[in-house]
Write a structure and sequence with these properties.
This protein is an alpha/beta fold and 634 residues long. The protein is 30% helix and 21% strand. The radius of gyration is 24 Å and the shape is globular. The termini are far apart. The relative contact order is 0.10.
């Protein structure tokens, strides 16, 4: 490590990359290539697209005739699975490991590209035999097991967009996503392991199917072997279907239009129900390929571990599709980072020779608190790069990650992006000088800025709205069934700019420092939750008349959910009731939405039009000034 440099502004740490990282890197000079890519973004993306295979080439790289509905590689025919699997089995990669999986219970399963391709073909045949057609949305609700990856790829292969619902979500969250997608097929498992206990996924799926009768067939993978209910004529075992004679090992990949949806993924906004973010076969594929290649410098010999869940965009892009498109080996672990001991992750890094580890600040903080010894007892010398995503990483966690996990040898790629952007937007490259807590500079072909209320570029040091000014291929195309909401939510505040919902500032070097959400979206433990979803779960309890949910800072989680509840007439507040309400939200939404704390109140601050002023609640809870109260009506 070179010595930290003191800048004119005070004590600013800058970490320069080790020489061998620079000499191996795909890109040695960010600035000149960035400038070139901004002069002609289409040329940059087109060159990346040419590195992949297409059934038919595009007529146009970017169709910007009706913004904000941008289209990429129009007229082209492809399928993301062709690039992720089909093309590799025709090369030496056929016998290379595509996926290494370790269960929380300790067993390992591995899939070569040949084997993964075979399983995907077989399962795609199963889906087709059940009547799943191009364009049908299949809901996937599974634990972190290889069958989940196979299911996602099989859907994409036959042109049926998947809608993955994170396995930690619960009944209401699952039911409303099934309803919005109008799925007829659900793929799930009997259960999953988490912290040594089993979680009954099929029980939750049964309850959701009872609420949402669109599901005609439910495919169940066996993981825990626990006792479950199987409804005749509706529920089928994955392993039984996979041994039927129809499931031969070859299956034609559906030729898709570049702009056809590859999946929808629901994410939370400030108001209303979750939004189905739509990504495409063509543009999304090119974006995640280019970002993973340049940012994590993935090479054939790498063993890449993105420690997210495939149920989130991070997992979609960088566990499943990205590494496979690059022909790398992707590692996936089923369970909790500290189970059975706090060295679980480090033991796996050593055992599998992981070369690049990509995780979230909340996980880093969680493991940091067990001390250095758990890390130091393992040989982590295989690591050459580290990554962070999900929220701003606090410098203390950054330094620990850098010095203890990375032995001052592994640059940390702090990648800023969103479900909506499909892949990285602001991120270092291995050669970028790093400042702990900053995601540094925009990726090639993308211009970002920090602007004030009037949409004017803010000077260095001033906090403002983080916006994106250039269209890029991985950007969401629309909100499923709600293009109007796509326009108003993201594109209406500043003409011609995509509003990220984050606040940020630039520094004098053009580095971006993301501060956090400007809207009421709650980012905690890396998860994103809409206050409205938590509130509607609370209000569905008979004791609750009204509720408000906000995020407040939390040491480990980044932010934690705090709820304010007005009880119905005649209901007495008590600790027991608060506990019951927390459990109720957990049952409806899943443990990740369970409020940290519930306070009973007599009124809530509201605008005259009746909207809850969550910023006022937040200010009060933090003992800060309440700001402009001209619209309040308590
Ligand atoms: C929000 C998007 C993209 C994968 C995971 C989250 C926050 C994300 C960073 C980062 C600071 C970050 C932002 C963003 N965020 N990465 N490196 N530094 N903040 O996806 O659930 O759609 O959440 O996560 O607030 O808007 P998501």
């Amino acid at each position: 490590m070179e010595e930290a440099v003191i800048s004119q502004e005070g004590t600013e740490e800058i970490y320069y990359p080790p020489p061998d990282v620079v000499s191996q890197a795909h890109i040695k000079d960010y600035q000149s290539l960035y400038e070139e890519s901004i002069r002609d973004p289409q040329a940059f993306w087109e060159a990346r697209a040419r590195e992949l295979e297409w059934y038919r080439e595009w007529d146009q790289v970017l169709d910007d005739s009706s913004p904000p509905f941008f289209k990429w590689f129009t007229g082209a025919r492809t399928n993301i699975v062709h690039n992720a699997l089909d093309r590799h089995v025709k090369t030496y990669r056929k016998n290379k490991l595509a996926l290494i999986w370790e269960g929380e219970t300790g067993e390992t399963r591995t899939f070569s590209y040949f084997a993964l391709h075979r399983e995907v073909c077989k399962f795609a045949n199963v889906l087709r035999s059940m009547g799943v057609k191009k364009g049908d949305i299949v809901t996937i609700y599974m634990p972190r097991i290889p069958e989940m990856v196979i299911a996602m790829l099989a859907c994409a292969k036959i042109g049926a967009p998947h809608s993955v619902v994170y396995g930690g979500f619960s009944v209401e969250a699952l039911a409303e996503r099934i309803e919005d997608a109008e799925s007829r097929v659900l793929i799930t498992a009997d259960g999953g392991y988490m912290r040594g206990k089993t979680v009954g996924l099929k029980d939750i799926a049964d309850e959701a199917m009872a609420r949402q009768p669109t599901i005609e067939s439910c495919i169940v993978a066996r993981r825990t072997g626990q006792e479950i209910y199987m409804e005749p004529g509706r529920d089928y075992w994955y392993h039984e279907l996979m041994s039927l004679p129809i499931t031969n090992n070859s299956c034609q990949t559906e030729e898709m239009d570049s702009e056809d949806p590859v999946f929808i993924l629901y994410t939370s906004g400030t108001t209303g129900r979750p939004k189905g973010v739509v990504h495409t076969h063509g543009g999304y594929m090119v974006h995640i390929y280019a970002t993973l290649k340049y940012v994590f410098d993935l090479k054939d010999e790498d063993r890449w571990w993105c420690a997210a869940d495939p149920g989130w965009i991070t997992g979609h892009s960088y566990i499943v599709y990205g590494p496979l498109i690059l022909g790398a080996t992707s590692f996936m672990y089923e369970g909790a980072p500290n189970y059975p001991y706090p060295n679980r992750w480090w033991r796996m890094v050593e055992n599998y020779g992981i070369t690049v580890l990509y995780t979230a600040p909340t996980a880093i903080r969680g493991l940091m608190r067990y001390g250095d010894a758990w890390v130091r007892r393992h040989d982590l010398s295989s690591l050459r790069l580290l990554g962070s995503v999900g929220e701003p990483i606090n410098p203390e966690a950054w330094r620990w990650y850098y010095s203890v996990v990375g032995r001052e040898n592994c640059p940390i790629m702090d990648t800023w992006w969103q479900t909506e952007t499909g892949g990285f937007v602001i991120t270092p490259l291995p050669v970028t000088p790093l400042k702990p807590g900053s995601a540094t500079r925009p990726f090639f072909g993308i211009e970002v800025d920090v602007v004030n209320e009037q949409g004017e570029s803010a000077p260095p040091g001033e906090e403002g709205y983080l916006v994106i000014k250039t269209p890029f291929p991985g950007m969401m195309r629309t909100i499923y069934k709600d293009p109007e909401r796509f326009k108003t939510q993201y594109w209406s505040k500043f003409p011609g700019m995509y509003q990220t919902g984050d606040s940020a500032r630039k520094d004098k070097d053009g580095y971006i420092w993301v501060i956090g959400r400007m809207d009421d979206v709650i980012k905690g433990s890396g998860y994103r939750r809409g206050p409205a979803e938590v509130e509607s779960a609370l209000v569905s309890h008979p004791a609750v008349a009204e509720a408000a949910a906000i995020g407040l800072p939390h040491d480990l989680k980044g932010n934690a959910i705090h709820a304010f509840v007005i009880l119905r007439q005649g209901v007495e507040p008590s600790d027991k009731l608060a506990e019951e309400l927390r459990a109720h939200v957990g049952h409806e939404m899943g443990p990740i939405a369970r409020p940290e704390d519930i306070k009973f109140v007599d009124s809530l601050p509201k605008t005259r039009s009746g909207k809850i002023m969550r910023r006022v609640l937040r200010a009060r809870a933090l003992g800060q000034p309440e700001g402009d109260l001209t619209t309040i009506e308590e």
